[in-house]
Records
---
Amino acid sequence: MSGNMNLTLKIWRQKDSKSKGQFETVKIGGISPDMSFLEMLDTVNEQQMKEGKEGFAFDHDCREGICGMCSLVINGMPHGPDHAITTCQLHMRKFKDGDTIVIEPWRASAFPVIRDCAVDRSAFDRIIQAGGFVSVNTGSAPDAATIAVPKDQADRAFDAAACVGCGACVAACKNSSAMLFVAAKVSHLSYLPQGKVEAKKRVLAMVAQMDKEGFGNCSNLYECQAACPKSITVDFIAKMNREYLGATALYAEKVYGEDM
Amino acid sequence: MILDSKIPGGPISEKWTRHKFELKLVNPANKRKFTVIVVGTGLAGASAAASLGELGYNVKAFCIQDSPRRAHSIAAQGGINAAKNYTNDGDSVYRLFYDTVKGGDFRAREANVHRLAECSNLIIDQCVAQGVPFGRDYGGLLDNRSFGGAQVSRTFYARGQTGQQLLIGAYQAMMRQVAKGTVKMFPRRDMQDLVVIDGKARGIIVRNLVTGELESHEADAVCLCSGGYGNVFYLSTNAKGSNVSAAWSAYKKGAVFANPCYTQIHPTCIPVTGDHQSKLTLMSESLRNDGRVWVPKKAGDTRSPDQIPESERFYYLEEKYPSFGNLVPRDVASRNAKNVCDNGMGVGQSKLAVYLDFSDAIKRLGVSAVSAKYGNLFQMYEKITDENPYKVPMRIFPAVHYTMGGLWVDYNLMSTIPGCFVLGEANFSDHGANRLGASALMQGLADGYFVIPYTIGGYFASTKLEKISSTEKEFEVSKKESSERIHKLLNIKGKRTVSDIHRELGHIMWENVGMGRNKAGLEKALALIPELREEFWKNVNVLGSEGSFNQNLEHASRLADFLEFGELMAQDALHREESCGGHFREESQTEEGEAKRDDEKFCYVGAWEYKGNNQKPELSKEPLTFENVHLVTRSYK
């Protein structure tokens, strides 16, 4: 043991998507402030396993804030109390000795729980499948320098493209809306000339899929922006709404039928 | 075994063009009749799945993560090389080829490397067309930087997240094919076994990680794009889930494993803080473009860095290598960091770190320019260490990062099992004994976008493939063996946790098969690893059940393979009595402590063939010839 923090954890236990879950209280000592939050949970799981109990399930992979796999609501905040980072980058120095920490999964009907704190986010993949791409086959691309892209537009596209697809925006929203995610994806491509060609079709298809997956409407509370580990702003939602309006005007018939 | 690399004839610059012409084609209408399995969805896997789907093949793609977008290629920060010569500084396909062969310390295949350099430009075109937001200058054109010891600026980058942006491009291309029905995606699946029928790879057994069910999937070819084996060291910059298991199962079915000892230790990682450490974090080596590496001249100096005057600082890379300075290749930078720490000059609490200092760059360029270039890396460093790198020098230490070795493949990327192709980091072919910066992304995408679509067609068009189904006896046997292994793991019910044993394996590997290797240490590792393996199978405690989401079982199963693989790695390192690239044998060094190759004896690819459980694997050699880039000693002085 490498530290001296003592903590009480209330961690969500749920056998599978069909079972009912509940909080389990665990006490843990010897936590170092230099540990990452997930290393603290590793320590908890090691302790559990030494006692013959199964560890808590939670998703994680790269542990450097870029794969978007980790996903815990910590004390009510997706990715915890620190700003603009994922759970795996959160360190225990943000907590105090004696703290009680509540750890839950993303809660949204579009993200069913698989086990404990691991959820199924395949809805995001299906939204991308609906239109989150540029239709260009391998080998058919022109020289990369053919089209100049104004730097400010390229930078805005990048700001949106920084999304890691973790779903914290959904977890933060009381309506479980996926607007920030979809807006980031729509904006990333529509800011670039390469993505403009299909922009209208894309925004309609992705928004339709978002609704189909059961994500809620935008609450306009900007909780998503506060929770986003990559500081993606709600400006992109405004951009998506503009694009969507423009696209519906053009595609009105196609989307709503001839009665519109 | 005779290893036929199938390198086409003709001058180096015409080989690939000629080969593409000579490969037989599959009629467009017939492509949908062929099923291809792709294991892993990083840059190699996602680009292969997308491209093969576009051609009309019926593709089944598998990944261990919950979404294919999360594969560990995503974590690559720095950039991707291409010989575009947009900067007019003298770059060319030939120069990129030359630099890569030399950088790999003459242990890569010339023909493969030249093809890689040829594909590099196409990759940039493809990615830009997909909407990858590469860095641009104020004229709106693509920006380039010099990276990882290159004398030309050929690296394209997307802030500090080039890997994520390239992977999103490939992933989106693949998702487009999923929507079209040519690619079927199977996330949260872990490959257990490769199924070989009549000597050809015809499918895989996977474990559905959510339900625990073992599934059989048949195909006409299998592409392993499952990444590297750095986690054999427990601590590495790999993702926690990265593993050798897919490649290892192919090895056990007859695919030979080449150069397993070639491991890259990356010089710019955040130092370890304690036993709780679960992984290491790399910071892009682009930091070395502006950061200066130093340690105190006096061993054991405990003063804070701002209290150490200029004259008492040892800028060891700048002093030893005046022409490359802080930009020497990774292996050279890492070894020098180890040396100064071994000599007591290390800094920080553990004394296992050196400084990477930005104060001169901040003076020269200003805080905002430094922040524009490295802002996200500085933020990441601060979050982890609680120190502000704008004010105090970063502390860095080398960490296991990339593995150049992998399954042996011929020029068509096919392993010694017909129909089993290996792409990206999982194969061995392009980086020799040391990979240059910004080359991994290039190789993964070259293999997936521009090589496999041609060579797999050549295989299908010239091979007779019987119709099979997943109920063949070979599938049943593999499934049964996989199931028995899982039962066995769950029924040991010993005292030690999986992580505990993995940590011990990592310690053995790092101490004896790490940055500096010698005969005694390697022999020690070869004695300790089998003992630990025995301990694992007697005394590990794997909890939970097989029919559920069980992360402990996943880890145990991967560790079981690492416990076998580690031994092969040590064996390979022991047999290679020379130093080359990332493989440094202390017995083989120059008077100045630089790596000394032995081209007379070791100018070959060492490929190991599985001969059965606890049997010594057999070594085969593929001689390497250098007709274009002549064998010289690397010098970065």
---
Amino acid sequence: MRGRTRTALILMAALYLTACGVSNVVIEGSFPTPNINKLPLTVAVYYDAALREFAYIEYSETGTEEYNIASGQSHIELFGAVLPAMFDGVIVVASIEEAQALGVDAIFAPNIEEFQLALPAKTKLDVFEIWIKYNMRLMTAEGDYIADWVLTSYGKTPTESLRSAEAAINAAAVVALRDLASSFSLSFTEVPEVKDWLNTL
Amino acid sequence: MKHLIGRNRLGSALLLLVSLACCTTTTIDEFRQGETGIESYESVVILGRRQASDYETRSEFVKCVGEGMAQGENSISIVPEQEFIDAMFPWFEPRTAPLRTRDLERLMTEAVVADRMTEFGVRYIVWLDGFTETSDRSGSISCVVSPGGAGCFGFGSWEDDATYDARVWDVNSLSDVGTISTDATGQSYLPAFVIPIPLIARVEANACSRLATQLKEFVNGS
């Protein structure tokens, strides 16, 4: 009898802990290389700590942490697939100073400004949605300003039985990252300041 | 004797329920705008539309239609959706995919896109757009667990409605050659007398198989 009570108590405690804990989601996905024309430029890429370690926390209606979504590494993987398809040469640097010493054509530094998650339980829609707002910076080899523009990406995935919320969040984030890759790679040369700079080369 | 009649009645009621549950009504509408036909070395790619804000065409449904077209008599070579989208990246993403044949015409001026299309041997692009919706949920089921055993009692029912449009683009002529619409509805039941017995109407599966058959005939030009 004592054994049964103990088992029941352990099960209840486990259930309580599961219900209260934050779910960690590390975004993972594969990103194809874009089929676009390369620009004859060598670009240094600088990922700052804020991007490398980017994580978003979604809070429940009661204010407790519900999901901790880490997407810094997946962003680096994404740019790793996209940038070599856009430029002849891409060098990842640890600091802006290091890039300046390399004598590249430009320095690119992406940043995540905002991350939003919409869960079906809150929106009453049968989709998980993710919005991400970026600030893209392009500098000369000397670190002077070329362009600074905002990009937004969006991804959604429908709710499915037998799929966890974590897996759905990951799927929506991968769609959002692909959306970033497509809009960034296709609109890069259309950014007015970038266009002006390219015309001077 | 009375007991036997009662049993027969219950059995008949259950049989009726099963037969009702198996009943799915499927309507297919075909609208042809141009001549079709396909050679053995050509293929078809089926893509799901994902532009709507509140739903998106499920990739499982797209896959199901593709598998249906690739089987049986007059089967057609189908390019898997994800393989095509990845190979064409970033031109067929939700934000960049062509919405009209005019957009496809513009897209085909990109050498990379035209080359990939030739590599796959794509003759037709089929755009699938739609979703399956569950409505009219009614009834309730209660389950009890006690030291003596467990069981569920009650009755539940719901209706599923699958509505999909398949728009067919001819890559050779860069034109819209037709649209096939399918609408399937069916009622599902879940009676529970100790054990729940799901009697599910295969609405989406029926919509998929009818649409695949019709698309196959359409593309073959028959």
